[in-house]
Amino acid sequence: MAEEADAFDRRILQLLRLNARRPNTQLAAEVGLSPSACLRRVKALEERGLILGYTAIVSGAPDDGFVAIVRITLERQSEDFMRRFETAVRRHPEIEECYLMTGDADYVLRTSAPNASAYEKIHTEVLSRLPGVARIESSIAMRNVLRARAGA
């Protein structure tokens, strides 16, 4: 990411966050670029690592299980402890999101499971075995109120 994103790049990123499936011709028109210039910019944003990938936001059915928001406190907040923890987190697909935090917890994770016994297995076989973990606090979400938005 040697160069900073300019106004065109920021607008492209903003629009793609809302709907990454829009045709390039539509994206170009909304940004105010030619389709070829817009496509070059999107490719450059991907190459620079500003666009990491594309995904679908799927609506969940009521029987999809539950989501656990997990607060992790490490034994130490040293660079080595944090690096080892973050490396381990990336190896576990059960952990859907991970954020380095300020405040009481060092990290907040999001994971989901179809039922309580499946989450217990994630807790005992994955979360409690992550390197450097001193404390785990889990909260179970009752329902989703707002999800990442799609559409303009």
Helix/strand layout:
Layout: H1 7-18, H2 24-31, H3 35-47, E1 66-74, H4 79-90, E2 95-100, E3 107-113, H5 116-125, E4 133-140
Antiparallel strand pairs: 1-3, 1-4, 2-3
Helix pairs in contact: 1-2, 2-3
Round the Cα radius of gyration to an integer and report it: 19 Å
CATH class category of the largest domain = Alpha Beta
Strand order of the largest sheet: 2-3-1-4
N-to-C SSE string, H for helix and E for strand: HHHEHEEHE
CATH T-level fold name of the largest domain: Alpha-Beta Plaits
- Strand runs, count: 4
Which percent range describes the beta-strand content?
15-25%
Structure characterization notes:
Helix content is 36%, strand content 20%. It is of the alpha+beta class. It folds into two domains: 7-47, Winged helix-like DNA-binding domain superfamily/Winged helix DNA-binding domain (Arc Repressor Mutant, subunit A, Orthogonal Bundle); 66-140, Alpha-Beta Plaits (2-Layer Sandwich). A hairpin with a 6-residue loop joins strand 2 (95-100) and strand 3. The longest helix is centred in the first third of the chain and has 13 residues, at 35-47. The two termini are 28 Å apart. The model has no long low-confidence stretch (mean pLDDT 88).
